[in-house]
Design goal:
The chain is α+β, with helices and mostly antiparallel strands and 336 residues long. Helices cover 17% and strands 24% of the residues. The strands form 3 sheets. Strands 7-6-3-4-5-9-8 form a 7-stranded antiparallel sheet. A hairpin with a 2-residue loop joins strand 3 and strand 4.
């Protein structure tokens, strides 16, 4: 009953008359609404859509009053095996969205049944035709099921470690729009059996120390522009990326006449080298931005937007998952 009353109170407050200029503020100035927009109760999603104000370069919301968000419970715990990798085989949680031998998106396995990715990759409009499969445990992109039937061209040992899964359900964030809330989940059609080549990455916990601008993290993927003739970038990548202040991303976008409202829900990263190498030029959307913490790997952000631009200072815009942990846990259904 208390939950219902809280929801009705929120709806009543959201349904007020339009905001004036004073009440339409940056999302960072409305902390209670921050939590609700990232972790929205299903009953008020349509009402929450009415809270946004018109803005070109900053996310602004109608913050006429304080909002009492209902408490959410993290009901599904991660497997204790998360975040560990073999001394040779890196990033065993990497998931590739494969169609016709090409990697179209990337994600990270977070438990036996779910892959964390961007909302753009989890949307039914992207994978709804059932042609897209999820590939786990691979490290050379050309080794898909079709190629591995021809042992004369592929080393047999390279074809024994990966598994292909169907997409049972894609779950984009219900309030996703462009760079805002660009996070999603993929529910696989069957449970994953962990081994040294397939293992989940950790989600942050309350004790996790999040990275700050200047810190160097890792990202990975199989690259959407793999060249089957030259075999360029056929291996899973290990790329260093540096967190920079969000304002640095915003300034680059403005200087390039790109209108993109960023907010505290985003992180910004850039290549660690000013020499823009081919493997850093193209970016794998949906892939994790990872940090090694107490000998375990954690995903801190999901790669949401990037620009294929030869400027070495071009930004990579990510979704900061620290705001979405409740949504992630509550969007997952139990599995056997």
């Amino acid at each position: 009953m208390l939950f219902i009353l809280t929801v009705l109170l929120i709806i009543q407050r959201i349904s007020c008359e339009s905001c004036n200029e004073t009440e339409c503020v940056s999302i960072s100035s409305c902390p209670n609404l921050q939590t609700i927009l990232a972790n929205p109760p299903a009953l008020i999603i349509e009402d929450l859509k009415q809270t946004f104000c018109e803005s070109e370069d900053e996310l602004k919301v109608c913050c006429k009053d304080s909002f009492d968000a209902p408490a959410l419970q993290n009901t599904i715990n991660q497997n204790f095996e998360c975040g560990y990798q073999d001394s040779v085989y890196e990033f065993p949680w990497m998931a590739s969205f494969i169609a016709f031998g090409w990697s179209l998106c990337n994600g990270a396995l977070i438990n036996e049944r779910y892959v964390l990715t961007a909302a753009t990759c989890a949307s039914p409009s992207f994978h709804g035709d059932s042609l897209v499969k999820i590939l786990l445990g691979d490290f050379i992109l050309k080794n898909n099921n079709a190629n591995c039937t021809d042992i004369s061209q592929v080393n047999h040992d390279e074809c024994t470690h990966f598994e292909t899964y169907e997409i049972e359900k894609g779950i984009p964030h219900p309030l996703y729009s462009d760079s805002f809330n660009n996070i999603g989940l993929i529910r696989l059609n069957r449970n994953v059996k962990f081994n040294e080549f397939i293992r989940p990455i950790c989600l942050p916990s309350s004790s996790h120390i999040y990275s700050q601008p200047g810190d160097v993290l890792k990202t990975s993927g199989f690259i959407t522009h793999f060249d089957p003739v030259l075999n360029l970038n056929r291996f899973k990548k290990n790329v260093s990326t540096r967190f920079v202040p969000l304002e640095q991303c915003q300034n680059w976008l403005k200087s390039n006449m790109i209108k993109k409202p960023l907010s505290i829900y985003n992180t910004c990263s850039m290549d660690t080298s000013t020499d823009l190498q081919f493997e850093n030029y193209f970016v794998d959307h949906g892939g994790p931005i990872m940090k090694l913490y107490n000998n375990q790997w954690y995903v801190e952000s999901v790669l949401a937007l990037a620009y294929e631009d030869l400027d070495p200072n071009r930004p990579i815009i990510n979704t900061n998952i620290s705001y979405y942990l409740d949504w992630i846990y509550n969007a997952m259904e139990p599995w056997n």
